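Example 5.3 — Thioredoxin
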Amino acid sequence: MAEKVNSAQFDELLKGDKPVVCDFFATWCGPCKMLAPVLEQVAAEYAGKAAFIKVDVDECVDLAARYGIMSIPYVAIFKDGEMVAKSLGFMPKAELEEFVSSNI
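Solution (predicted structure tokens):
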């Protein structure tokens, strides 16, 4: 399950030893709502291999600014505290699985 986190929790998770798959979203965003169940399915498949999190860009404006996020949904993968991959927009399950598997 993708856990919704705040800025402090986000920074702590990036210090961990697992890759982090982060969905930057907003509650009013239609494509974000479409991506949510797809992300949950992929998160279940990769349980234990990566941390899946969600960041509300309206609540965590600092994180959106830090990573230059101007459009959502924006899925980013972090390793060792650094962003190693990013994808903008809705992705069907097969595409999200490929994005995650090739970057974690």
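Remark. The radius of gyration is 12 Å.
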